[in-house]
Amino acid sequence: MQGGTSNANNGRTISLYVSTVGLSDIAITFATQRTSTGFNTNQFQYSLDGVTFINFGAPYAPPLTFGLVTFDLSGISGVNDNPNAAFRILFNGATSTSGNNRIDNLVVEGQNISTPIPEPASILLLSLGLTGTLAPRLKAWRRKPGRQRD
Question: Looking at domain 5-112, does it have CATH number 3.30.479.30?
Fold first, then answer.
């Protein structure tokens, strides 16, 4: 995004509408940089309904060379498992028409909250444990009077 004629783009936003269904502990990460006359005060915001946005933390100043920025929203439970989650960046502080900011490699990630599928090794250990527990009972059952032995 560039500053625009008479810096008209100060106050403009870029929005991401992302479903977080099945995810918790949401984090947004991206690489960013600005030119010397680009937007020097950016505000990261989130929304629980895709309409009303809330500032997350203080405004940040993008570096003049690409740097990684991460916003950890794990403390905001309403963003978890939310089909209407949205995120945006509010740009301010451009001082020339051609001043700009760049964003690259944007990632929205979270932890899977669905029931985990057990590993094959866990299933094997459970089976062996059950076999060891049931084997003595099976032997005792076979030895009861009136039961035929093999």
Answer: no
